[in-house]
Specification:
This protein is of the alpha/beta class and about 170 residues long. The protein has one domain (about 5-145): 3-Layer(aba) Sandwich (Rossmann fold), CATH 3.40.50. Helices cover about 30% and strands about 20% of the residues. The chain has a five-stranded parallel beta sheet with strand order 3-2-1-4-5, with helices on both faces.
């Protein structure tokens, strides 16, 4: 049984499903939940360009901190009153923040949500990046929308060039 469960949060539906699963586990095991949100740091490239940005770096950081606080407070409202909660707001990469907190030894399980589609093609999901964590990691996948087709990978994507290529490679022998 897991008694100390750390949940990685943002404002995605996958994170909501991860929180629901963590609440179930905490109630079954009479445990506690840690709500961790990592506010990203604004890229410094934004202010190096020739176009003037209408906001300062400090203003953007303050907005990202407010976003993180809103995520934690929204999650806190979903947690039942009998489950103890620890709120954690960090800065930077979410996978690194979760790994750092898991390494602290204060948690038995890390629960994260994973969307069905990646937002950036070169970015690995947080669940994959936590493979080497010191504690077990539970990855909760986002439920597909009703009527949405799930993507399937094709093993062979080349179309035949001629009708002869459509024939099987081994013809039946009589």
């Amino acid at each position: 049984m897991f008694h100390r469960i750390l949940v990685g949060l943002d404002d995605s539906p996958a994170a909501c499903r991860a929180l629901e699963r963590a609440i179930e586990l905490a109630q079954e095991g009479h445990g506690r939940i840690g709500l961790l949100t990592s506010a990203p740091r604004p890229a410094s490239v934004i202010w190096a360009g020739p176009i003037a940005v209408p906001q300062s770096r400090a203003g953007m950081c303050a907005q990202l901190d407010e976003w993180g606080c809103r995520c934690i407070e929204a999650a806190l409202s979903a947690v039942p009153a009998e489950v103890p909660v620890t709120k954690l707001l960090t800065h930077g990469d979410p996978a690194e923040a979760l790994a750092r907190e898991a390494e602290s030894g204060a948690w038995d399980l890390v629960v994260v949500g994973q969307a069905s589609r990646r937002r950036l093609p070169f970015q690995r999901p947080v669940g994959e990046r936590l493979r080497d964590a010191a504690v077990p990691v539970l990855v909760v996948h986002e439920e597909p929308a009703p009527g949405e087709k799930t993507a399937r990978r094709r093993l062979w994507s080349r179309k035949p060039k001629s009708p002869l290529e459509r024939l099987p490679t081994r013809l039946p022998v009589e």
